[in-house]
Amino acid sequence: MSNPDLIDYIENRTYDEIQVGDVATLVRTLRPEDIQMFAIISGDMNPTHVDPEYARSSQFREVVAHGMWGGMLFSNVLGTQFPGPGTIYVDQSLHFERSVRVGDTLTVTVTCQRKFDHNRHIVFDCDCTNQDKERVIHGTAEVIGPQEKIKRPKATLPEIKLSATRKSRYEHVLEITRGLAPIPMAVIHPCDTESLKGALLARDRGLIEPTLVGPEDKIRALAEEMTLDLAGCQFLNVPHSHAAAESGVALAREGMVEALMKGSLHTDELMGEVVDKATGLRTERRISHVFMMDVPTYPRPLLITDAAVNVAPDLVTKVDIVQNAIDLARMLHIADPKVAILAAVETVNPKMQATLDAAALCKMADRGQIKGGVLDGPLAFDNAISVVAARTKGIKSAVAGQADILLVPDIESGNMLAKQLEYLADALSAGIVLGARVPIVLTSRADSAQTRTASTAIAVVMAHARRNGGISK
Questions:
Q1: Do residues 115 and 15 touch, judged by C-beta distance below 8 A?
Q2: Of 392, 405, 332, which Cα lies nearest the Cα of 172?
Q3: Which of 4, 44, 422, 468 has the fewest C-beta atoms lying within 10 Å of its C-beta?
Q4: Can you tell me the distance from the alpha carbon of 47 to that of 53, in angstroms, rounded to the nearest whole number?
Q5: Helices 315-331 and 449-467: crossing angle, nearest 10°?
Q6: Do 406 and 330 touch, CB atoms closer than 8 A?
Q7: Phi then psi for 187, rounded to 5 degrees?
Q8: Where are the domains of the chain?
C-alpha cells in the first residue's frame, strides 16, 4: 500500500474491499522528542523513559521508549489507512518482546487474518520489528470494518514543538554565576512580597549577601506574614522609600556594597539618586538599561537596549548605550557581540533619524570609536533576527539574522518590543542598569521574584568582572 504521508488526503478501505492476507505497513524512527511527547500526553513519567541518569543505572543502560509508543503505531495504521476512517476498535492484544531505543527504526505490519461477515468484524495480525529484523511487539487487533467509502482531505493539526520549560531556562540563566562567590548587595525598599522574595531567593541561590534598606519594622512584618526567613540579611533602617534610595546609593558610593536592587519604589525615585551629580553613582559613561531576553524561538540570548532609562537618545547617547551593551555581552562571554541597530527599514533615509544614527554608529565603529563588537544598521527587526528574512531582502551582513544585541531607536519601541517578547513569546527577561559605578537590578514592580533573581545573576557577573579589572575574556 502507498505511504499515507506522501498524499494530502486520507482514504479508507471498506470491509468488502479487504481480503484475508491483505497487508499494510508503517515505518517510524524513534526520536528523543517522541519519548518526551508521549510522556507529556500520557502523564507517564517513569524515569526509565525520561531520566537519562536513572536509565543508565537500569537494566536497559539508556533511555527507552514507553512500550505503548510502539503499540500506538498499530492504532495509526488501523485508524488512518487499513481499514482507515470509520474503523471501530473492539479489542487489542499485544506482547512486548524487546525495548525500543532512540534511533531504532520500527516497521509495523498489519495483516488481515480473519473476517466475520455477520457483524463486519476483522481480526488483524500485528507485528513490529526493528532495523535488525528482530521482533519488538506482536499481537492481534479486532475491529469493526467501515461500511461506507470515505475519502477526505487530511486534517490540518497544530504544529507541536517541544521547547525548554521556563524553569529550565531560568536555571540556565543562573548558570552564568557558576563558581562565583556571592556579592554584597543593597536591596532598596523591599516592602512588597515579590521584591522581598526576590532578594531572599537570590540569597538562597548563593548570589548575594543582602542588606535590606528601608523601614525595618515593615519589612520584618511582611516577612512574618509571608513566612519568609530573614536569616543572613543585614538591615539599614530608614523611614521611607526616598531615604532608602539615598542611603542605598550612599552604600554603593562608599564601597560597602557592589550592586543595588530596586524594590517596591518608583524607578524615578531610585534613579534620581543614582544620577545625582554630587552624591550619585555616575561615571563618564551615560547610564543605560539592558534587557537580557531568553526567547524560546531564538537560539541565543538577546540583549535589548535601551528600553527603560533613556527616553529619546541622540547619537552621542547611543554611542554610550551600545558600548555599555557590548561590554556587558563580553562579560557574559559573548565573543565579538553582533549589534543590530534597529529602524523601521533597512536602508538609510534622510527623513528617518534612526537610520541616520545607525549609519553614523556603524562608521564610528569602523573608526574605533565603538569597540568590542560588530555593528550593522539600519536593520528592520525581521532581518536583524532572521537569516531567511535577510536573505530574502538581499542583505549581506555579519549581523543580520544572528544579532546578539538590539539597539532600539527610543524607549517606546524598546519597551514595547521587550514586553511583546515576554508576554507573547514567553521570553524570560532580566534587566540591569549599566554605566553607573555598580550594576543596578532594575525590574518592574510587576516582575516576579524569579525575574529579579535572574537579573541579580547578571549583576553578580558584572561585579566579579570589575573585581578582575574589567571585562571577562
A1: yes
A2: 332
A3: 468
A4: 9
A5: 90
A6: no
A7: -105, 115
A8: 4-153, 285-435
- CB neighbour class for 107 (10 Å; exposed up to 12, middle 13-18, buried from 19): middle
Listed in sequence order, the DSSP H helices in 367-407 are 381-385, 387-392
| Pairing assessment for the beta strands 234-237 and 208-214 based on DSSP bridges | parallel
Q: CA 322 to CA 341: how far, in whole Å?
A: 9
Whole-angstrom distance, CA of residue 340 vs CA of residue 380 = 9
What DSSP string runs through 420-456?
A: HHHHHS--EEEEEEESBSS-EE---TT--HHHHHHHH
CATH fourth-level superfamily of 4-153: Hotdog Thioesterase (3.10.129.10)
Residue identified by cell 502523564 is 43
Query: What would the pLDDT profile of 230-265 be if each residue is shown by its tens digit?
Result: 999 999 999 999 999 999 999 999 999 999 999 999
pTM: 0.74
149 DSSP assignment: -
285-435 fold: Isopropylmalate Dehydrogenase (3.40.718)
**C-alpha dist (Å) from residue 36 to 69, 134, 160, 193:** 11, 25, 12, 36
| Residues 295, 424 contacting (CB under 8 angstroms) | no
Can you give the C-alpha Rg of the chain in angstroms? 30
Taking alpha carbons only, the member of 73, 190, 207, 187 closest to residue 139 is 73
Which H or E run includes 75?
Answer: helix 67-80
Nearest to 244 by CA among 258, 262, 232: 262
